[in-house]
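Journal club prep, shared notes

We agreed each person brings one worked example of a sequence with its structure written out as tokens. Mine is Nucleoside hydrolase. I'm keeping it raw so we can talk through how to read the token line rather than staring at a rendered picture. Sequence first:
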Amino acid sequence: MSNSQTRPVIIDTDGGVDDALAIVMALNCQQLDLKAVTVLAGNINVNQAANNVLRVIEIVQPKQTPLVAKGCEKPLVRPPFNAAGIHGSDGLGELHQFKNADGSPRYPQLTLEPSSEDAVDVLLKAAQEYGSELAIVALGPLTNIATALQRDRNTLQKVGRIVIMGGAVKVPGNISAAAEFNFFVDPDAAQVVMESGIPLTLVGLDVAMKAPLPRKDVENYAQKQRSLVSQFIADCTGIYMAFYRDNEGFHGCYLHDPLAVGVAIDPSLVSTESVYMVVETEGRFTSGMSLADLRDRRDESTFPPNVDACLEVDTERFMKLFYDLI
Ligand code: BDR
Ligand code: CA
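Then the structure, token by token:
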């Protein structure tokens, strides 16, 4: 059993820059008992993604080190599709470029190693052990979670909730006009999870794009609060933020994955609507699109709502939580 003050949580992640910020928050949050970080391919390949998670843990140095387990190397059906062009060639802002004053690497060889356990087994074991107390916070494509459902549906269905960073309900996609990146990479897995019967909270682009982090704020924070963590945050976000500067005219980034952790900590940060949602697995132009039935005359007895979709966020309160935890 977990301490009654804390909730057992697993983060499932593809090891990118905003994933790293989300993991910093979770490691520093007393209300969450981060049991494990399960890793999969998405922003970057699974080995590099696991190294990125270990890097974050090594920098934060939490009292209790969560297990880090590698899982799926590619989507259920599709070929892999990464975002190295956005997150950097290592998925984490190309940390090898940073040196100390004496020329030594600021981010030397890792000392931590991933577990030999398979991520999907870790998810199933945790579902069995913690049941409805357990929340999974999914920050990448949903391949590990879908694979766990396919391997042992009854056991995974014991978890209390999955908070998913993914999809877009009333706003356009980001990787395509129709699709958000995590659902685009593995639409088949996203649809398996939509059909899981597990309570789902969808932290999609509707709210994630309302949580911007300007570059100048990160630089001010790193100046004022000098630490290994603030230096790391300033370093790893450089390339990611330059992508938004060059492509969207905003020098900063969106806190997609940190917001999902924020919602797992404090669901009152967002307002949600229960909707019936499917994910397009085949569309020529719409692959990975999350489609919510928003019609007034929707038939909820045939298509019962399967997702609590976040539509509004209290950005000010979320940003306070973010800074409190980094
Ligand atoms: C999502 O895509 C990834 O690149 C980010 O880490 C985030 O999980 C946003 O669409
Ligand atoms: Ca991610």
